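User: Fold both of these, please.

Assistant: Here is the first one.
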Amino acid sequence: MTTMLLKTPGFDAQVTAAAARARGCALAADAIRIAATLDGMVPEQVGRAAMGLGERVYTELAESQAAGFVPAAGPSADPSAGPSADSSADPSADADGAAGDGDLLMLTETGRLRVVPAGTRPGGGEEAEALGTLKWQSRPQSLGRLFALARDVERLQFEEVHRWLAQQSPEAVRRRIDAAGHALVHMAPVLLYVGDRRYSNLGRFSNLPGRSMAPGAEGSLLTRLRRSPAAQWSPEDAVFVVCLHALISSGSPVRAEEFNGVQLAPDLLADFLRERIGAYGAEVPDVAGEPTGAALDRLAAACAAARDRLLGQGAVLYREINGASLHKRERIMPEAPSWDELPGAVAGLLAEAAGRPLPADAPPAAAAAYADEVVGQVVRQAAPDGFTTPYEGFLHRFFATVADALDCDVAMGRGPKSVTVLHSTVPAEERVALATRDFYCCVAPGRAFADRFAQDRAALAKTLSAYSARMRYNTWHYLPHSMSWTGQTPRRDDWFFAPMTADITDWSDQHHTGHVAFGVRHALRVPLGIVLEGAYRPGLYDLRLLRTSGDRFGLPDLRAAMVTGRMQALLHQAAADRGLEVTDFDNGWFRDFHGA
């Protein structure tokens, strides 16, 4: 019997492999590109934006001068615990670029390319692998001065923000810290940089609160900052607090993820906010002459207002996610997906159930009535073999159809087993006590994916039930925010912001343990909501599609998934209005259904 293996090497192995590839290069430009992109896994502009200003000067000059590259002997730990007293020494001390003695390239454990000029020591305290040294054909005489100037420009930026923050009242500073802490513990991990310093709440890299570190923990940077006046902070920490606060104020709090893997520098953030304001169709405020901190606050407020206006006009947003760097970027759909983009096989399944096709120009009310017809016809039928109710059988068939129609390995959707337990008439104590067993995730494999397991039905069942278990947890995790319970007493603080926008992800199988173990490489997610007791409840359901290998998803796939999800949400609404419950799709069901 052939055992189907989905586990991928994961992020650490990719960093090691990229370092080895870079060490095999003869030209600095090739080594820089491989290291910055983790050998093609990270978008180049993201990888390069992780470097400080001085490092970018170095790499650009090395590429323009066609510098050679002398590989290091092999992996090594960071040779320094911190910067030397003279971190801007003239790098021209090494004339021939001999390995171990010249301008050194390093790749950190977080996948960041570092440049350590000759005569200096690396800052930041990150563990890293030495890649090799630059070998200049003719070293620019101004290289040391340019590097020192770039570092000075960066330092002056940071110090100006630091002075401004130190002039704010202690209460205003505390509000910024508290807002940052609230966002960090209720969102996916962040991993970003200010100069040589790393700020993250991801696993072993953590110095911020999140899933890996509790709020108030002694190891948390925010805990330390709360105990001292801002004037005593480092300039980098002041920049982190000011810039992160502006970033999470400029739209959804999860906007912070749009700086994952890159420098959260004041000038780069200002450029980002101006670009977003312009993309939203609004006028960029004139902040010339204002202190940088105040200017960022004004730009963030204008950005948030412009975004809200655009959404109010019906714009559709989505996010592109690079799973290796965790970098996420909001995009605007040129036009909203329409019913004629619904995959033909899905439209055929709905027409079969309803007895008529969905009109391509159906307005919202007509589409809702159509979904209600589908559910009404389905519940009149007998339950298919293997399912408790006909509705559950239809859900599974729906996702299986989507998987094949969009060439996915797996399609799935999650939600509450019963919406009745979410009603306000249920005591808050009972609602807070809901557990992952109170939610379901229907997971259906595409035919080709199921065939890859051959006769190993146990492995197929294990894989599908693992996907299902994780998604059941996600519904539970989002529930307080989806249902607006976060301020209720008793309360549950272990929640995440409910997802609002669709996203398209590549290389998702790098950091998340479950994604690594079960090969979730390329994914689409369409969060869905319904109306309960007169209020819209976002992220209570979703549609997820994944591929463990092969081509990444494209924008047409995402548009098709979004319009499919729109119909799926209407089906969930019709089922909720009827009080339908779901009891299938737990681990035992997957074993029984797939004959494990």
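And the second sequence with its predicted structure:
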Amino acid sequence: MSHPLYIAFIWHQHQPLYKSPGSGVSLSPSQQYRLPWVRLHGTKDYLDLVLLLERYPKLHQTVNLVPSLILQLEDYIAGTAFDPYLTASLTPDEQLTQQQREFIIQHFFDANHHTLIDPHPRYAQLYQQRQEKGQAWCLANWELPDYGDLLAWHNLAWIDPLFWDDPEIAAWLKQGRNFTLSDRQRIYSKQREILSRIIPQHRKMQEAGQLEVTTTPYTHPILPLLADTNSGRVAVPNMTLPEQRFQWVEDIPRHLRKAWNFYKDRFGQIPRGLWPSEQSVSPAVLPYIINQGFKWICSDEAVLGWTLKHFFHRDGAGNVEQPELLYQPYRLQTAEGDLSIVFRDHRLSDLIGFTYSAMPAKQAAADLVGHLQAIAKMQRDSQSEQPWLVTIALDGENCWEFYPQDGKPFLEALYQSLSDEPHLKLVTVSEFLEEFPATATIPGEQLHSGSWVDGNFTTWIGDRAKNRAWDYLTAARVMLASHPEATEENNPEAWEALYAAEGSDWFWWFGAGHSSNQDAIFDRLFREHLFGIYKALNEPVPPYLKQPVENHQAQANHAPQGFIHPVIDGRGDEQDWDKAGRIEIGGARGTMHNSSVIQRLWYGVDHLNFYLRLDFKSGVAPGRDLPAELNLLWFYPEKTMVNSPVPLADVPDAAPLNYLFHHLLEVNLLTQSIQFREAGDNHQWQPRFSRAQVALNNCLELAVPWADLQVPPDYPLRLILVLADEGRFSNYLPENALIPIEVP
């Protein structure tokens, strides 16, 4: 019997606890939420995703709703949650303080401008004024209607296009300007109305069988690190650990029990699946998950790879080799009982999360369906008796900000194709497991300790700032343990503050790896939750909690912090490059220091392209202040292939200039024309076709397709940039180094 290819989409909906327990000063209700993202994502991302799915009844999916997200939604619905953005929005224009005006100009464009600001002419006009003339000019020249319109548009732009046919919303979008306080009050009411439909809609679709709703440990903690911070060394044996070992395994059943009871109360049934926070698992956490009653969990292919001692290679099209290992559920066997686990296809999940937003909707949907059809063919060719299950699991909220119309055209094209394709069947995880229980087994103690990020925990522990935060948390946890009289029943404030501080998000933003415009606020919130523990116990607050965990000034040089999708127009849009790697050139010592015409270098990737940007000193002209020829040369470490030397005169015989390279892209900065070449025999260079894009305006931007380089996924490359004049070496960058690139 031939099976269709079963596919389980799992959308993870999560926000950290922005609600402040207090910071030692009295807080008015309008200050109790530090950030607005529950409210804004609530109007843009949670309801429309399932409403859109409901139109395609053949398609079944799984949605994970984190308890700390639902708690905050309920506060906003009740009208008891106020954040600084909302408070400003509901303030009469003439009563806005100077501090509020500064805050509005700085933060009310916190959105992807391509998708959320540019489509709305009045919002785009205000944004351009701030970008081109600066914040000080806006503060000096804007009049009350400008502030009123910005306050309205910041809220309107985050309302999903699915709701734009609502008569009131349609009228506001058409109105465009001259918004009154009354308009903004009505927009706020509309936000609460949308939020109030989220949980009932999920419950209704679950009861109808089209949806499975899962949960997560109460405030989204990394369970293996709660059990023992030393588990960080399983994947990274030389990891630097916090000074104090955090080992509070008894907190795990507390988080699980609270999530379980919370879910039962909201959905009228018990949960079957658990999304472990950040797909983080370890042998130590399994007994608690089993004892609480969960039937299945999910994690990442990297965790499965480490567990099986198998690396999942992919072919040139990006499809996994030995797919039967990844595309099946497993049964984790423990002394407490068994637990099913599914592992997501990391690349397919990332394509939706980070790449398809940069492609036309129908082309992106066709690409994903094409991958699934290729897997279905592999399944048929294998003549397997067991059906395959492809798990695609990802963040269900943040990626849509980068899609036109919040992803609606992409999802509609995808869902229509999946509905029409007879060999592909979308199921909930529980549906599949009930019909086809896991037959492959993994001894519980063999399960790797890791997360969806490279199969390790370095995102949350191991560098100086993250470890310092763990030490602060440990001290507060020890203090709570020294008060056995402080139970959850008679001192819930202390325990709620602990649960909030144990959430994963604070550690995500501390230290290396991730950065946002609001790192300092995340730092403050973490310390406020710890502060709340001491305050509830009537204990003195350690002085260090009144100082930031780390310095939040922008780093100079740093590695890429995520995928990027810049528009190649030579303008260097700040939002397009905010997650790119950055190397300061102008301020460095050595050869480039003398002229410093190139200020900095930015680089990054997505699944389609490698991206490069060079920032020049103001007024610099190629051919006059800067050599006219830029050469990109790629070196492939530890790979055997034909290579050739840099094809220029007067190249110094010193590393890395005397390396042999495999690909060369020559960019003429005067004409913006390109020539692409590949190394041939006898140290020759052969011309090749390229689809690279180049643009030079106030900076140079380049996009080089991976297809040009013909490298498979998970491949390391190194790059050097060489400047030349009429074929003669002039300079190179970065100095004494190669730019490290990892093909996704």
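Residues 23-31, 587-595 have pLDDT under 50 and may be disordered.
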